[in-house]
């Protein structure tokens, strides 16, 4: 695991409150009925979507930006991908490494920002994943630029985040955090949610080209998640290819 100096951390594109919040929750990453239950529930959908968009991931080099405790990273490694996970919450990476030892999967985890990693590893990855992360940093446009730098020419970048509108506040905060306790209270700040038009504007400043956009939806009656492009009102994915 690489180390960052205090000066680098202070100037990095991170939110100290967000780091503290996820550090306090780190022990629960692999509790499938705990605080990260919703991530475990949507993970098969995320992995299937990535596989379908990439026409398979076996043997491909993938980086998981904001990997947390390794839920997505391990699932991708299970499919035969060569996965690197980076995050700025050391406690989460410790959990990820411990779970990696238990699972026997080969995943590399590093303490680093996307920007710092991109300086050293430009054009190294077939697939760059940045899921449920952009809404937790002060400058998401900087993460988008780093992702574009990390991907190989002809490779793929996948972002997922939350739209900013009254419906997303109702569904992702009022309902998910307070009514149904699907995620811990205070997980999200609605002001940091990102409209699709805003994310597309960030992408347009890079060499990336958008190839797909779809929404992640929840059926409260069936208690099931599903993907559909009928709307992107709340959670949504954007897939890009690199020229």
Automatic annotation (TrEMBL):
CDD domains: AdoMet_MTases. It catalyses: a 3-(all-trans-polyprenyl)benzene-1,2-diol + S-adenosyl-L-methionine = a 2-methoxy-6-(all-trans-polyprenyl)phenol + S-adenosyl-L-homocysteine + H(+); a 3-demethylubiquinol + S-adenosyl-L-methionine = a ubiquinol + S-adenosyl-L-homocysteine + H(+). It holds the Pfam family Methyltransf_23. The gene is ubiG_1. The keyword S-adenosyl-L-methionine applies. This is Ubiquinone biosynthesis O-methyltransferase. The lineage of its organism: Bacteria, Pseudomonadati, Pseudomonadota, Gammaproteobacteria, Alteromonadales. S-adenosyl-L-methionine binds at residues 46, 66, 87, 131. Pathway: Cofactor biosynthesis; ubiquinone biosynthesis. InterPro entries: SAM-dependent_MTases_sf, UbiG_MeTrfase. It comes from Agaribacter marinus.
